[in-house]
Amino acid sequence: MNAPRYPDLILHNGRFTTLDRTNPTANAVAIRDGRFTDVGDARAILPLAGPATNIIDLQGRPVLPGLIDNHLHLIRGGLNYNMELRWDGVRSLADAMAMLRAQVAITPAPQWVRVVGGFTEHQFAEKRLPTLEELNAAAPDTPVFILHLYDRALLNGAALRAVGYTKDTPEPPGGQILRDSAGNPTGLLLAKPNASILYATLAKGPKLPPDYQKNSTRHFMRELNRLGVTGALDAGGGFQNYPDDYQIIEELAKEGALTVRLAYNLFTQKPKEEKDDFLKWTASSKYQQGDDYFRHNGAGEMLVFSAADFEDFRQPRPDMAPNMEDDLEGVVRILAQNRWPWRMHATYDETISRALDVFEKVNKDIPLQGLHWFFDHAETISPQSIDRIAALGGGVAVQHRMAYQGEYFVERYGAAAAEATPPVAHMLRSGVNVSAGTDATRVASYNPWVSLSWLVTGQTVGGLRITPRHNCLDRDEALRMWTENVTWFSNEVGKKGRIAPGMLADLLVPDRDFFTCAESDIADTTSLLTMVGGKVVYAAGPFADYDAPIPPAMPDWSPVRRYGGFAAWGAKTAPAVQQAACGCSSRCGMHGHQHATAWTKSLPVSDLKSFWGALGCSCWAV
């Protein structure tokens, strides 16, 4: 007789939201060989334990399926994460600049201090970016590069010297170097109409050596795990070259060291050489090659450069080149013939409708049905284009870029136009395949809870409500956008995204109840316990004993060592100040009457009272 096969792990005393419509809730699960084997009641599941079964009491906490980002630049982001000072989630420019000054003080030459996206000026209490004068005062000798979305970059004088931009530097194609009256660069670079100048300038900075890049990628994945992310679709990216820039992630995959499941797309490398890229890659790579942790997912997000409409809403909508259709058809025919799905960056409906003309033409000769192709972003997609996508069996992967750029969109196009930008609720009702993600790490933050908050509330990170209630999602719909819906986009339907027998055992235990917490609290959610394939990849708080920490961030001056990631969570917490001690008789303009809360935030300053007082807090003398 065969010996009984016991579970490797049992989780019980939890409140599981399974997203399995046949069994929507449970209080226990059993896991074996990386998959859920039993989902249901603890009275039936606990007796399944064998002598070697690990059992974890979840202490009555909620449990959700692991989150899957439909559009993340994880490979590129991982190579650079340890070098980047993240302003994601930082609530004031004063905090951000204090972080920058502290980082400048420990960053050795010739390294830069880089703030590479993930934030917007609207998240700051001051509602502005630093001035170039402030950057130069904070860092007279250390190069500082600050990327704000994909609209501009700020460089201090040391960074201008490091990249060699002078009075004689010619104006770059697709961008602008702002100059003073004498013709000297000021330090402000503008993306007009695309971000090439921003990419190219950032690429001039020092890179980490390979062993540091591996450590950096592990820390980026751990930060994602801290937020409950267990899977992602990597969308390639500018200046992310295949195969050179994929060596680190491939090494980690071979070592079994990935803590985020990754399906990667191949992004074309050079203008006018797109067909050559895809002819070469379709001959040497097989769609879906790999395993459940690291696998090939097709082409994109860039298919041809002539079809790329960058999303800087401060600038007018760019018109695509007349040769867009011819360029795109050549590539799409190669992909369709080889049964490679694709993803295509498209911000505006004008681009989407022209691309659909090409897809429909190819479809007449090579049926696209069954290929999991889709558009990314699609902020201004029309109902007609949604119907055309549905008819061709495609999808739309939306991201929370409007949470960071909604103010700019409203300023240019008006509040009415922003009400359904993108029209997520309409897409869901239309039956088209649709899911959610971030487009991190540059144009928005990698924090999935910011996206979930935006889907539910319709508000930007600056607090502007751009989406009326009837266009927002309920919390169940929003969660499905980040879990089971994403699996269509990686052709893994039925494999993950729900907590059900046979599914990959990916889950998180959030630090609050997503379904009942205040809407204003959604974006602040983190995970207390994250599992991928039934293995703990992050644990904190009551589950900290189950955690398996990784080596410290390298190099030793890495901002990750001091600040962690989103909202500088890793900074040392200041001593608590009892709110009862407050002696101010008038309302504080900075804190209201939440002084204890404010003073216990992680702030990179030694004297919190005088720090806030410098910003005009009326109770600084407490």
Automatic annotation (TrEMBL):
Pfam families: Amidohydro_3 (PF07969)
Keyword Hydrolase among UniProt keywords: yes
SUPFAM superfamilies according to UniProt: Composite domain of metallo-dependent hydrolases, Metallo-dependent hydrolases
InterPro entries hit by this protein: Amidohydro_3, Metal-dep_hydrolase_composite, Metal_Hydrolase, YtcJ-like
Domain of life: Bacteria
Protein name: Amidohydrolase family protein
Originating species: Pseudoduganella ginsengisoli
Gene3D superfamilies: 3.10.310.70, Metal-dependent hydrolases, Urease, subunit C, domain 1
Molecular function, one GO term: hydrolase activity, acting on carbon-nitrogen (but not peptide) bonds
Domain named Amidohydrolase: residues: 55-538
Classification of source organism: Bacteria, Pseudomonadati, Pseudomonadota, Betaproteobacteria, Burkholderiales
